[in-house]
Amino acid sequence: MGNKVTIIGAGSVGATIANDMVVMNIATDIVLVDIDERKAFGEAMDIYQGTSFGAPAIVRAGDYTDAADSSIVVITSGLPRKNGQTRLELAQTNVDILKDIASKVVPHAPDAIYIIVSNPVDVMTYVFHKISGVPANHIIGSGTVLDTARLQAELAKEFHISPKNVHAHVYGEHGDSSFVPWSLATISNNHISKYKAHAPLGEEIDFNGEYGEFEDTVRTSGAVVIKAKGVTNYAIAMAVCHIVRCIFNGAGTALTVSTMMNGEYGIEDVCLSVLNIVDSDGVRGKIKNDLTDEELKRLQNSANKLKETIAAIKF
Fold it and tell me: Which residue, 26, 49, 166, 214, is the most exposed by fewest CB within 10 angstroms?
C-alpha cells in the first residue's frame, strides 16, 4: 500500500499532522478529509505548495472513499477541549462523531492501522474497538505518548541532559489520573534517584527527590497551553507523526500508546497506556514491566476512572 496516510479532521491538529508529515518526510500520499470540505481543500493546497522545499509528497483533500489503500488512518475529528474543560467531559459528543466516521471510513480502508487522536482518547479508542470491526492490533490510541514527551522534556531540563537519554514514561489515562511509574525511570542507565550522584557536575542539578511536581506539570501542560493560545496542536502533531514513523519503519518501538487491556495488571475491557511495541503491523504486544504495589494501584485506579466514563456514555 505504500506510505499513504488519510487524516480525518482538517482542524488545527489534523492539518498540523499533515504538514509535519511532509516536513519530516514520513508519508508519500496524504489525504485530508473533513466535514468542511473547503477547509480541507485549503489546508491541503497550502501544505502541498511547500513540498518543493522537501521530499516529494502528494497532499490532497478527499472524501472517505479516498481512504482506500491507506496504510494508516488518523482520526482527529471532534470538538476541541475548551479552557477549564476536562477531556472526559468531551466524551459523549465526540463518541457520536466517531461512530459516524467509523461507519464511513472503515469499509473503504478495512486493512489500515487506525490511530485515534480525538479526546478523550482512551474512551474513543475503546469505543472504536467496539464499533469498528478492525482487528485489535490495528487500533492505536495516541494515549500518553505526548504526556511522556512532556515528562522527558521536563526531566531533561532538570538533569541537564538530552531528552533522548531520559527513559521515564506516563502510564494510565491521557488525563487527570495518569501517573509515572518512577520505579522504572532511568537516565543514562542510572535510576533517576541516583543519576545526580553519578553525573558530571551533579552539584548543579537541583533535583531533591520530589517527583510530584513533574507529574503535576505533565497533567496540567495541556490546560496551560489551551488557556494561553486556545488549542494544543504542535506537540500532539509531532507525537502522532512519531507513532506513524514507528509503524512505517517496522523496527519495533516501545511507545505508551493506548490499547485494549486483556487482563494485564489485573485490568481488562478498557483502553489505557502502558508500554507497547509498535511495528509495521500495529501493536505487537505489551511490555509487562514489574510495577510496585502502589504503582499497580494507581494504574488500576486510572482504569476504573475510565470505566466510569465508558459506563456513562451511549455507543
Answer: 49
